[in-house]
Design brief:
The protein is α+β, with helices and mostly antiparallel strands and 146 residues long. The protein contains two helices and four strands, in the order H-E-E-E-E-H. Strand 1 and strand 2 form a beta hairpin. The longest helix has 37 residues.
Length: 146
């Protein structure tokens, strides 16, 4: 695997994890939003990842052939949770129904913080990979100067 391929893979992961952190931050920010643009409470969003594949030319005995190799990660979709909203009895709330219940978003702050920590750690791991590649490339340049 070439240095540029490794950088592309780590870069795609950085982009995907940054979006995951953005979606999680939006979930936390809207944890108490009882009226979204569709009229109901905010719906928790989550990111769906999928592997990227790339075609690599490989030299065979007689001719070059194409083979599928890992190419990183992509965000396939940002989906909304279909779970039911959290019902809270609050008759004084402007969005209360006839029984005095208010539909709050199905956002669990513990789940969101766990997801944010996992995304942050994955982001840091990919930064470490990029830094290691940069250091190896710099050492190779230094050796070539000798």
């Amino acid at each position: 695997m070439s240095v540029l391929t490794t950088l592309r893979i780590a870069g795609s992961a950085l982009t995907a994890q940054r979006l995951r952190m953005d979606v999680t931050a939006s979930n936390v920010a809207n944890a108490e939003t009882t009226r979204a643009s569709d009229g109901g409470p905010y719906r928790r969003a989550s990111v769906v990842f999928a592997p990227l594949r790339m075609q690599e030319a490989t030299a065979g005995a007689a001719s070059a052939s194409k083979m599928e190799a890992p190419g990183g990660v992509e965000v396939r979709a940002v989906i909304q949770d279909s779970g039911p909203p959290r019902e809270v009895h609050d008759p004084g709330h402007p969005d209360a129904d006839a029984d005095g219940n208010v539909a709050y978003p199905n956002v669990d702050l513990v789940t969101e913080m766990t997801d944010m920590m996992a995304a942050s750690r994955a982001y840091e791991a990919n930064i470490t990979i990029i830094s290691a590649i940069k250091n190896m490339a710099q050492r190779a340049i230094d050796i070539a100067r000798l």
